[in-house]
C-alpha cells in the first residue's frame, strides 16, 4: 500500500550502488516537502518470513546460528528470505522444514512488520505453526549452519535476559507467546 502524505519525499534521481543476491543498495536524491533536496541510502530486500512454532509440550522451536553482520551467535525463531515471487505462507512452511525438520498442520499469519524503515524496505511476515511433527533431519543450505533447540517459556525469557535472543522477530515471538499464556488464564 502506497500512502502519500504531506511528508512524501519524491525521488529525483536514483543511482544503483550495488546489486546482490539478497539486497540491492541505491542512493536516491529526493525532493523534500519544504522544496529542498537531500540524499537517502536505500536497501531493497525481497522480504522474509519467520515462524513461531510451539510444540504440544509447550516448547518453542528455536535455531542457534552465527550472524556474521553481528560477529556473534544468536538464538532465533526459524526464518528466511522470500524467494522471488514466492508466497510468504509457502516460504514459512519451507523455512520451518529446512531449519528444524518439522512440518505443521496449521499455519496462521500473525502480523507483518518492517525491520528498519529508515533505510530498508524489508517486510517480515510472522506465522504461528501448530500441530508440529518432526519429519526429518535438517536439510540446510550448503552455507547454513544451525542447531535446533526446544525451550520452555521460562527458558526463552532467560535467553532474552542473557541477550542470546537479541533480534526483533524472536523477541516479538516471546512476547506473543506471553500474550497467549495470559489469554489462557
Topology, please?
Elements (H helix, E strand, L loop, with lengths): L9 E10 L4 E8 L5 E8 L3 E6 L6 E8 L4 E5 L2 E3 L6 H13 L1 E13 L8 E12 L11 E6 L1 H9 L6 H17 L1
Parallel strand pairs: 4-9
Antiparallel strand pairs: 1-2, 2-3, 4-7, 5-6, 5-10, 8-9
Helix pairs in contact: 2-3
Which terms would index this structure?
three-stranded antiparallel sheet, 185 residues, single chain, elongated, alpha+beta, four-stranded mixed sheet, 43% strand
Number of helices: 3
Which class of secondary structure composition applies to the elements? Answer: alpha+beta
Secondary structure: number of strands: 10
Distance between the termini: 37 Å
Would you kindly provide a written description of the structure presented here, covering whatever features stand out?
- The protein has 185 residues and is an alpha+beta fold.
- Helices cover 21% and strands 43% of the residues.
- The protein has three helices and ten strands; from the N terminus they run βββββββαβββαα.
- It has helices spanning 88-100, 153-161, 168-184, and strands at 10-19, 24-31, 37-44, 48-53, 60-67, 72-76, 79-81, 102-114, 123-134, 146-151.
- It has a four-stranded mixed beta sheet, sandwiched between helices.
- Strand 2 and strand 3 (37-44) form a beta hairpin.
- Helix 2 runs antiparallel to helix 3.
- The radius of gyration is 19 Å and the shape is elongated.
- The relative contact order is 0.18.
- The model has no long low-confidence stretch (mean pLDDT 94).
